[in-house]
Amino acid sequence: MNIHEYQAKKLLASYGAPVAKGIPIFSKEEARKAAEELGGPLWVVKSQIHAGGRGKGKFKELPEDAKGGVRLAFDLDEMQAHVDEMLGNTLVTKQTGPAGKQVNQLYLEDGADIERELYLSLLVDRVTGQVAFVVSTEGGMDIEAVAEETPEKIHNISIDPDAGVTEANASAICDALKLDGDARADGMKLFPILYKAFTEKDMSLLEINPLIVMKDGHLRVLDAKVSFDGNALFRHPDIVELRDLTEEDDKEIEASKYDLAYIALDGTIGCMVNGAGLAMSTMDIIKLYGEEPANFLDVGGGANAEKVTAAFKIITADPNVKGILVNIFGGIMRCDVIAEGVLTAVKEVGLDVPLVVRLEGTKVAEGKKLIEESGLNVIPADDLDDAAQKIVAAVKGA
Predict the structure, then answer these.
(1) Residue 119 among the catalytic residues
(2) Partner of 118 for a Cys bridge, out of 99, 139, 261, 388, CB 3.0 to 4.6 A?
């Protein structure tokens, strides 16, 4: 689950992280009062969407040479003009895709005198099995280029979960970021704070880009992107309250009601699979044979017919889907349960696109028999390779 920048900063501030004063804005009429409350003389107007690259983004409704989704204002009239242009318009960034995201809220924040921009993030390092700080002296909007062109400038410091952020860890992070004086003293305090927030709130990502050294020598969290582990949200009702459904795909919202792992993609072949690894393999082989998956969908090992029916309805609700591949390896999951759910869904919503079903494992004979006797136009497949070729051929009209 993702949250907005202003929500992330409020959360980090509650742990003691240094952030600027800011006020979220939900209507154009709120802007001037918020700006007067902050005082100026410099304000930063920030689009609040669940996507990165806002500063270099473009608004669909504005001329190509218009400013992006993060803007500076040096007087109240300029601030109001930015708000009027940005609020309610659609911002397109590298992470939104061509459709972009509508900006429904802004964050008005005090400006800062920036000496240096740094990059810092925390995430789970799957190699070490520990939370790691990923840091670089090259923070800012071009961090992706740094990772690609000069990866030696990015440093990884793993944290022993039993010890937490030790003085040696904090000192190593300071060294990697080339901090000294007041900035180093701030860092020695800040890095344990960030680790505590990350672990206590079950975050999956905490990214601060940039973390800045100001001209007075102190550190400040200038931006914050936070994602939470969805499997741990039951422990954090306060975090669940921050969820913004307007930022999520309608199909993903529906899937979450049935505890389905679903992510909408841009392709034409809908996938229903059990197991994340098998789902990834299914998506890969679809691409191998020349088409693109329309979704990632893992129904899990313990799905019942109701859950499978819901999954099928979600796939067919996507207007981009031109064909469906059901790929089930029955271990805990029974193939006859999958077949029953698919057939129930087909009868309820109809079947207007080709459907290929590959079943293997527990109760496979019973599952295949249910499909064969259904009288529905379902294409059987013997294995994953056969299934992928058949659904791609069917979508292409072969």
Answers:
(1) yes
(2) 139
- Give the pLDDT of residue 303: 65
267 is in an annotated binding site: no
The model's pTM is 0.81
Can you give the pLDDT at residue 152?
Answer: 84
Work out the percent of the chain whose per-residue pLDDT is above 90: 64
- Classified as helix, coil or strand, 278 is helix
Topology at the third CATH level for domain 114-238? D-amino Acid Aminotransferase; Chain A, domain 1 (3.30.470)
Within 13 Å and on the Cβ side, how many CA atoms surround 99? 5
CATH superfamily of the domain spanning 21-110 = ATP-grasp fold, A domain (3.30.1490.20)
Say whether 360 counts as a known binding-site residue.
Answer: no
**pLDDT above 70 covers what percent of the chain?**
98
Out of 3.40.50.800, 1.20.1050.10, 3.40.50.261, 3.20.20.370, select the CATH number for domain 249-395.
Answer: 3.40.50.261
363 is in an annotated binding site: no
Whole-number Å distance between alpha carbons of 338 and 359: 9
pLDDT per position as a tens digit, 250-292? 888 888 888 888 998 989 999 999 888 999 999 999 999 999 9
Q: Which of 119, 195, 258, 262 is catalytic?
A: 119
291 is in an annotated binding site: no
In this prediction, residue 2 has a pLDDT band, given cuts at 50, 70 and 90, of: very high
Q: Is 332 annotated as a binding residue?
A: yes
CA-angle at 175, arms to 174 and 179, nearest 5°: 55
Long-range CB pairs of 144-150 (<8 Å, 24+ gap) are 146/119
Q: Is 372 a catalytic residue?
A: no
Burial class (CB in 10 A: 0-12, 13-18, 19+), 98: exposed
54 is in an annotated binding site: yes
Are the C-beta atoms of 47 and 69 separated by less than 8 Å? yes
Judged on CB neighbours under 10 Å (0-12, 13-18, 19+), 203 is buried
Catalytic annotation, pick one of 207, 258, 262, 340: 207
Kindly list the domain boundaries of the chain, sorted by start residue: 21-110, 114-238, 249-395
